[in-house]
Amino acid sequence: MNNRSRTTCVKAVKIQHLAIHSHHLEIGYQVDRFSFSTKVYYHDISLENLATQYSPEIIERIAAYIALFEGMKLCSLFPETYDVSLIAKNLSQPALDLFAQIYQGVFAQHWYENDVVDYRGPEVIYPEGILGSSQAVEIQRSDRPTVLAACGGGKDSALALKMLEVAEIPFAAMQYSHSVYGKADFQHDLISKVVQKTNPVEQHKISIYDDFMDFPFFELYFPDNSGITAPETPVSIFEALPIMLSQGYPYLSLAHEKSANTGNLVWEKLGQEVNHQWGKGYAAEQALNQFIQTHLLTNFTYFSVLQPIYDFRIFRNLTNYPEFLPQIHSCNIQKPWCKQCPKCAYVWLGLMSVFDPNLVNSVFGSNLFDDPVLLPTFREMIGLAEHTPFECIGEIDESRLAMKACLEKGLSGTALTMFEQEVLSDRTIDWQQLEQKYNHVYCDEHSIPDWIFDKIKTQL
């Protein structure tokens, strides 16, 4: 490992404690001499009742998977070992294989940011012969064709919920808050305003409290490390399983678009793509689906209802539901919008390209195209820098198409002038071909069950 990474690594991460309470899980981690905890709260189900309805072993196994993957964020410190002895009896070798696969996909960005070329993850350790075996069970009452649809409050979640509603597919909304994004009640209130514009049969809430991500640990003890990376989407899939077991939901739907499958750059040192959104992409979706169906719940299906389309088309489809515009929020810095980060800049750009600018201005209240702080971000978005921003945004050509649309609407700003001079002036770009690519519906590249796809395809 190079000199820089030696200053940012620790010896060992260990799962120290795991307790299953009636309404929450409590997980304790040891990182060398430091201790941290993660708490996962379920607002409207009882884990004790689930253990009675199914078996304590099933709930313990799900809790073990949650503890295993929640602990992956601690690997941001480049530990030599990850001690899972406490939960090893509830793990199987395929679970550890999945952990390695998810780590490799999610953490490529972290390697790149820290210029680490010879670290591929910690050695997962446990006493010899203690690993268990896995036997999948059925979700009870799964004849209810109800979809558990995750909602984080952004444009994608809003459109996905509305598509299910219009298709008359019964769905329950699952809200997820995390302490790193602020107070749980504030987050849930924001998300509820989006959900209330739809008609779910039920509304569920999960709240995560995490002192490793929420406290200024990195900046005080490991200032040379680029920061925390976490497999937030993959671990949230496992955290949704108790709700599915409790209510008999066989389907879990998230709102991940086709754009998430494209990386930010190819890192020449490793010859590997770096993709900030890998955990949201189709490859991760397939791996998680196969693992859970084979080793945990036989009649479980996880899919993204937006996987067949790019962000470019999502923004356009969202114009059918302008009532969402004042309610959606996507910022990971300061909700609902900090108006200074790549996510805010990207969503602003996309919304301005398709909506009446006055409607967007009523939400944001400023012209982000003229913000000098955001000019480097806009340059990254349209391919004038080493890589696109490490955020959940669309591809370079999607941002270019959006800027072109903004210019055609008569909008102005420093970022648009820059685009006009440095990109639009390139006469070799086939704009019609690009629009055909990003406005297309890719009917064969998704995991949506046939009966659901048949009902929603006209809305895509």
Q: What would you say about this model in short?
A:
The chain is of the alpha/beta class and 460 residues long.
Within the largest sheet, what's the order of strands?
A: 5-4-1-2-3-8-7-6-9-12
Query: End-to-end span in angstroms?
Result: 47 Å
Domain module count: 2
Helix content: 40-55%
**Largest sheet, described in full?**
10 strands, mixed
Q: What Rg is obtained from the alpha carbons, in whole angstroms?
A: 22 Å
**DSSP strand content:** 5-15%
The overall pLDDT, averaged over residues, is: 95
What is the overall shape?
A: globular
Low-confidence stretches: 1-7
**Number of continuous helical runs:** 19
> What structural class should be given to the helix and strand makeup?
alpha/beta
Q: What is the number of strand segments?
A: 12
Question: How do the strands and helices of this protein lay out in sequence?
Answer:
Blueprint: H1 3-6, E1 12-20, E2 24-31, E3 34-42, H2 47-53, H3 56-70, E4 81-83, H4 93-106, H5 108-114, E5 123-125, E6 147-151, H6 155-166, E7 171-178, H7 184-195, E8 202-210, H8 211-214, H9 217-221, H10 232-247, E9 251-254, E10 265-267, E11 272-274, H11 282-295, E12 301-304, H12 311-318, H13 342-354, H14 357-364, H15 375-381, H16 396-408, H17 414-424, H18 431-438, H19 450-456
Parallel strand pairs: 1-4, 4-5, 6-7, 6-9, 7-8, 9-12
Antiparallel strand pairs: 1-2, 2-3, 3-8, 10-11
